[in-house]
Amino acid sequence: TQLLEQSPQFLSIQEGENLTVYCNSSSVFSSLQWYRQEPGEGPVLLVTVVTGGEVKKLKRLTFQFGDARKDSSLHITAAQPGDTGLYLCAGWMDSSYKLIFGSGTRLLVRP
Amino acid sequence: DVKVTQSSRYLVKRTGEKVFLECVQDMDHENMFWYRQDPGLGLRLIYFSYDVKMKEKGDIPEGYSVSREKKERFSLILESASTNQTSMYLCASSLGTILYQETQYFGPGTRLLVL
Predict the structure, then answer these.
(1) Three-class SS string for chain A?
(2) Which is deepest, A6, A110, B35, B114, by most CB within 10 Å?
């Protein structure tokens, strides 16, 4: 059983559409991170959210950390083909040295 | 820019062979990690090192060992490769100050096929 559940697993959309990816858990996290991984490469950090209720924006990407620090979402506005990739959420639990990864959301943005 | 390099992008080995995967980081990071990535399972931690010669088991250490003789280099060893170790292996490093907020910097990965 995954500690961090991501949904959807796959998403194929047209350029210009909006989308939201969800990362949910029954456990509380000290912080949550979102990474993007392109084919043939390792994951690259997009953002870290630390405070419950926190919202961070990175150009067309908006990240939110749930009030109870158990969930997070990533919203992309006007998706572009360059957004194509695997999006991974990852969380740090209190008193743990391990970063726990979700199973990922594979996004394809068609031109 | 932080750079994490892995010795091979692709490897093909036979069952029972000893396999070495090497990882080097150039930013003087304290922490280094080995993950494996399988479809639908995300990244799972194999081993973690927070200092030279120090190591901690992750979630799936069975069948693997590690070596960290120098700060910049972290090796993953498959003592006797098996077909269920066919996977993508990712190395990462992080600074080592405030663990729960740190960025992990990943290498490009090694895709290992065990026949």
Answers:
(1) CCCCEEECCEEEEECCCCEEEEEECCCCCCEEEEEEECCCCCCEEEEEECCCCCEEEECCEEEEECCCCCEEEEEECCCCHHHCEEEEEEEECCCCCCEEECCCEEEEEEC
(2) B35
